[in-house]
Amino acid sequence: MIEELRKHQLMVAIRTETPEQAYMAATACMEGGIKFIEITFTVPDAEEVIRKLSADRRVEVGAGTVLSTSDVRKALRAGARYIVSPNLDEGVVALTKKEGAFSIPGACTPTEIYRAYKAGGDVIKLFPFVEIGGLDFLRTVRGPFPYIDYMLCGGVNLDNISGYLAARAAAILVGSAIIKRDLIASSDWPSITEIAGKFALKVQELYVAK
Description:
The chain is an alpha/beta fold. The chain has one domain (1-209): Alpha-Beta Barrel (TIM Barrel), CATH 3.20.20.70. The protein has ten helices and nine strands. It has helices spanning 2-8, 19-31, 46-53, 69-78, 90-98, 110-119, 134-141, 161-166, 181-185, 189-209; strands at residues 10-14, 36-40, 60-64, 82-84, 102-104, 106-107, 124-126, 150-153, 171-174. The strands form two sheets. A seven-stranded parallel sheet has the order 3-2-1-9-8-7-6. A two-stranded parallel sheet has the order 4-5.
């Protein structure tokens, strides 16, 4: 999983008002070349969306905003491959690892980051990334913790993604830069596919340049 994340770099978090919107947005992202899709548990019937997507070989689907062990169980039963949280809950991490899934807990201080790593987090989600210092914070925290894999959550867009990619984190979590509210409201799935494709192209360009 970690090697696939490093290769594709991008994970898209989908947060919509209806499960139908979430599924259509996820499909639009896949058609734009996005491999990792996170369905947040703020989406009504999120586990049903995860179950439907888990049958599609184009995608590695996970659950986001997972705050309890009961939600971990629901997500994994539905077919989620990884569990993402905005915070660190050792119980959530422990159950995720016990069930053989990939754990991405959230943290925003050196103490939280190390605790999340020691608890078994495979990748530590730096959240809220911009507010805690962005790329400068990442460079600083890598000093004492160079062996920890990070996912950058917040602030990325098409204008600054090159800087995020150059940081060589394990992954970059993208939300509203692709899943735009106005496009969701108007069911403009082709435009979401187009934006997702532009993000995916940025990653491809980086690998071609290597």
